Fold:
Amino acid sequence: MSLRRRAARVAALAFLAAAVASPAAAAPPNRVEIDVFTIALDLEHGLVMFWNITRDDFCDWEATEFDGPAPVTMLIPAHEHVVRGEILMVNWGGTTSLELWQLDEDADLSGPCPDTDGQSGPWATGTANQTGHDNDVDVSLTRTNAFGDHLNGSVVDVDGNSWRFMSHFVARIDRSEEFHLNSEQFTLAGGH
Structure:
């Protein structure tokens, strides 16, 4: 679960790295807009979360081997800052689309597209605010790369019930390239 979730987050952060320009020297934070998105596996509730990208758009883009820019719902406001002349740090936050898809009964956890392709549509849709940070977007290995995000959203399911969905994710990659999950939590509440 964690490795798959990390892969989705790494993919999102890799696109983040490509979306922002890195100045050559240290400078004050630069305001930019980035095409960051999050796809996360919530095994406790049997859901796959798509924030700032729809499942269909992501799966179509994946089928092209990620040709072109990420088909995000919107560009997200961010601050980038270069430290030590080469390390790009980014903080972002915004409110945009949230889709929650149920895992197929026969999901083998091979990826967000095949694990949900038995569904005719999302189980619930709405919006969520996500704030995130990455202290070394390009993973320079000159320091520990700490990154994470916090999401808080509201969705309505196919039966018209309202839900509150929250996620919290904090991880790091040490200088030996080892991935460490510090914390990961999902909360689904409501249903009325």
In short: The mean pLDDT is 88. Residues 2-19 form the longest helix (18 residues). The CA atoms of residues 12 and 36 lie 6 Å apart. Helices lie at 2-19, 55-63.
